[in-house]
Amino acid sequence: MTSHAVLQVLLSGVMMGLLYALIAAGLSLIFGLMDVVNFAHGEFLMVAMYAMFALVGITALDPLLLVPVVTALLFVFGCLVFSGIVRIAMRAKTNLGMVQVFATFGLGMLLQGVAQLLFTPDYRSLADSWIGGKTLSVFGLYMPVPQLVGAGVSIAAFAAMWLMIARTDFGKALEATREDSGAVALVGINKDRIFTLGWGVGAALVGLAGSIMAIFFYIHPGVGAPFALIAFVTVALGGFGSIFGALAAGILVGVVEATSALVLSPSMKSLGIYAVYLAVIFIRPRGLFGSL
Amino acid sequence: MTEVPPLAHMPGARHDDYDAGRRRQFAVALMLAAAVGTLPFVVTDVYAQNVFILTLTYVALSQSWNILGGYCGQVSLGHAIYFGIGAYSTVLIYMKFGVTPWVGMAAGGILAAVIALILGYPCFRIAGHYYTIATIVIAEAALLLVLNWEWAGAALGLQIPYAPDSWRTFQFGRNKLPYFYFALGLALLTWILCWVIQGSRWGFWWRAVKDDALAAQSLGVSAFRSKMSASAISACLTAVIGGFYALYVSYIDPGSVMSFELSMLISLPAVLGGIGTLWGPALGAAILIPLSEITRSYISGSGRGIPLIVYGTLIVLVALARPQGLVSLWPTRQRQMRS
């Protein structure tokens, strides 16, 4: 194998990994904030992709212009899911952990069903766009433009999140609520409001990822499941609740996937991810960057 | 030295009442099983009988899951791995070596228990959501391996060759009765096992581990050993049922016996009916399986997603409105006594 091929695999892995990190970021944010794993996370991604599909169909604008619209829609969607379902699920007195798992999982099924009803189970894809189907070549290394844009957007989103957490009042309230959701009431922070907005931001992040993936990936009702599994693995690898752990773990997952597709076979590419994940959590249950 | 009064098994319930209550439960289960046993004579329609068999299979499956998930509180969403082990052991041992499927079912059960112990060793060092996600990932990894395992039919799966009707080969052609009674037997067996566990000290240890693992350990209960034993029993039963299912449908492939959807289907009846209860899995399966079969046959037609919507809505509603499951709607003597 030439060093050139190795570089190409690494590059593809890192680009895909940045996208995985972006998908996982919202899951990690929500878990860190309130110890709830959103088992409908993959369906949030699917909703974002169909939202993009529908908006492109209606407006005939370029998908790239609609990315902010889809992201905003998913923000609202996330807020609604929290106040309509998760807030109530968190009140359960028995089987608390399971109620959250199955309430969000049931929601995921419901969303899949609705997507089938509205759009049929057919595979859809967006018509040509400014960046769709184009490939850039630098020093003989190939970079599909949509993936490149996705990687750039992911880096920008993580930078924005860092700024938000470090510089804004909302970010500080988020961190404080994560530390101790009971005590924050004493300093006048409305816990429910922070939770709602946290779900909004989490869903917006996966909306951002989904709206870009819609440009180069097939859209169908079951599209979310494999990505949700990768997001779970990424979040557990990076350490639940650690957003920048998710960034590092996402890149690791992308590179491991690309490598195992090459070394094993494309059909076994996920096996490498699972193996690395299991090895890490058995040695270090809290994940690479998690604090337990 | 002062005499220490014996501890009552349950707060507010006297020993005798508690034992009488348990005996009554057992009698009800036997009578219910007998009543269900007459069903195929009342309803002779083959399609309906097929739904009965599937329902009973899921009663047994969900009850097996309940042993680990309900009584011991370890939410596994990867039980399809044990189902698959049972199904593949049974079919492979029969097809490749010509040994009767009965041996395959038993071998599958033992193999699944051993694998559950091996997997449990690292897995039970992690808890809660971490454990749940690990079970999903392990089952997916196993699915991938079987999908690429040429000797076991890979993605195409395995078709059990046709043989004349006999109990030795577990083939009965179009006659559904033997399958029906075997499934009923499995459902009753798992129920009785749960009943025994619930009354034994293991059951109390497991529930203590579920409620508060640290507190249980401070009283000398080994959380790790409790989880391991619950996991092994649960896996063994799941695999035996998997073996039966394979013989019933006579065709298996990785997607139908090892998928994540199957893991969910195994846990959902217990969740719907009531986690950690004797009757929850049976009630949940009796609602969910006919519902999904009916919606699949009559409403879905063109894959319009109605079954998913019905299922999803039901799960969300029960999770939000009745976190204890539907059995909690049933007024029991014990609850009346407690209040």
Give a quick set of tags describing it.
heterodimer; A: about 290 residues; mainly alpha; ABC transporter involved in vitamin B12 uptake, BtuC; 2 strands; B: about 350 residues; two-stranded antiparallel sheet; 15 helices; disordered N terminus; disordered C terminus
Description:
The complex is a heterodimer of chains A (292) and B (339). Helices cover 73% and strands 3% of the residues of chain A. Chain A contains ten helices and two strands, in the order ααααββαααααα. With 292 residues, chain A is mainly α. Chain B is mainly α. Helix content of chain B is 71%, strand content 1%. Chain B has helices at residues 15-37, 39-42, 46-71, 80-97, 101-123, 128-147, 177-199, 201-211, 213-218, 223-249, 254-257, 260-273, 280-300, 306-321, 333-338; strands at residues 158-159, 251-252. In chain B, strands 1-2 form a two-stranded antiparallel ribbon. In chain B, helix 4 packs across helix 10 and helix 7 (177-199) crosses helix 8 (201-211). The longest helix of chain B is centred in the last third of the chain and has 27 residues, at 223-249. Chain B is globular, with a radius of gyration of 21 Å. At the A-B interface, helix 3, helix 4, helix 8 and helix 10 of A face helix 6, helix 12 and helix 14 of B.
Outline the low-pLDDT stretches of chain A: none
**What is the rounded distance between the termini of chain A?**
41 Å
Give me the CATH architecture of chain A, please: Orthogonal Bundle
Globular, elongated, flat, extended or rod-shaped: what is the shape of chain A? Answer: globular
Rg calc of chain A:
19 Å
Q: What's the CATH first level of chain A? A: Mainly Alpha
- The third-level CATH topology of chain A is ABC transporter involved in vitamin B12 uptake, BtuC
- Could you tell me the strand content of chain A as a percent range? under 5%
Radius of gyration of chain B: 21 Å
SSE order of chain A: HHHHEEHHHHHH
Instruction: State the helicity of chain B in percent bands.
Output: over 70%
SSE run of chain B: HHHHHHEHHHHEHHHHH
